[in-house]
Amino acid sequence: MPRFLTTWLITALALLVTAHFVPGFYVAGFVPALFAAVVLGLVNAIVRPILIVLTLPITLLTLGLFLLVINGITLLLVSALTPGFSIAGFLPAVIGSIVLTIVTGVLNFVVDRVF
Prior knowledge:
Elements: H1 3-21, E1 25-27, H2 30-54, H3 56-61, H4 66-81, E2 85-87, H5 90-114
Antiparallel strand pairs: 1-2
């Protein structure tokens, strides 16, 4: 199985798991999670680097903690662009980004060990 397909499926599964644990983080099902994973990948590839460069002084001043805000903003943008995926506010987006990062890391670790 190609690596990008594996990453896509892991991200979709991680979105579903995150929606289960974070209040205010909602995914309607697996198909919307797949679509949200694609949009998330595009936003992370295009918009996120621009935000990081624009907010570099704030990020340096906060010793990198402002990246949590950027991650929350990118998730909110993805929820605005994706039907069947919604986030009820900024705080659930930031908490969801933390949980999503942890779940994705664990799933990647498991998949790398098994396959």
